[in-house]
Design goal:
The protein is α/β, with parallel strands linked by helices. Helix content is about 50%, strand content about 15%. It contains eleven helices and twelve strands. Helix 5 packs parallel to helix 6 and helix 9 runs antiparallel to helix 11.
Length: about 325
Amino acid sequence: MSANKFNRTAKGRRRWGVVLAAGLAAVSLAACSGPAGGKDDSGDGVAAGGGPKMKVALITHSTPGDTFWDIMRKGADTAGKKDNIEVLYSSDPDGARQAQLVDQAVDQKVDGIIVSLAKPEAMAGSVKKALDAGIPVYSVNSGENEYKDMGVLAHFGQDDRVAGQAAGEKLKELGAKHVVCVIQEQGHVGLENRCTGVEEKLGGKMERLYVTAADSTNISSTITSKLQTTKSVDYVLTLGAPQAPIAQKAISEAGSDAKLATFDMNADVIKGLKNDSLQFGVDQQPYLQGYEAVDAVWLNKRNANVLGGGRAVLTGPQIITKDDADELEEYVEKGTR
């Protein structure tokens, strides 16, 4: 090869090297930026998604002060920041009033509705109204057996009966003989399914005990009375994390030797696991439920994707014990577990 030809080839390589480097730099900048300049002003390092801003209504049956829904909202809001979605949250534990909130979201012409289906019969008419208006509906947390028949596009949560079975198996492993399953909301199909699952796998006696979630005095007195009159109870199982410390106090006041386990997670659950006042928790990852449901709206609007392939997207159950407490504590403190 002549010197002149070699020099021309070398120059060509250098020229293409500069072009390639510039191209890679442009790709890198694009990957790190969001729409319209791509500046991430969310404060948590999450860049906004592409496309026009959307509004999504997240409507649950939450009672005031329930930490479970705080975690779910955090997941939903995080996905909303990423996807350029404004998440409009509202809740009411009364089925008829929750349905009215769905009707209001339809009137606001939101881009999607995410709803919990704890009382599916009460919600059916409003869900149909949303679908008739061309608004896609997704369900979270409860309604895994009803969502398809209602025309809901996808469901995110745990199978409550399967979760109850997992708890029942763990209780049996721990030697439980007589379990009180504390239901904090009458008419909630998911809570009933949890107790049913426990009963199926326990191999011992199980009783349902109904309390009022928003009334800590009612929870405490009802559990205390049950333990004082039924000495054979050796385990109390609460179906929500906020009820666990109330139940622990009731066990103590009743002078009972019963042990405690619970569904769901919060800081009190981690504390109880670490000091052995709580035997285990059943986590369904509400942060993931909120995050995936909001993300599902964006994916469907932007690319006609439907998560789950016609089946519920399961986020639990996961049995949490003392061995897991240290690892999960930092996430619980952040409010994401």
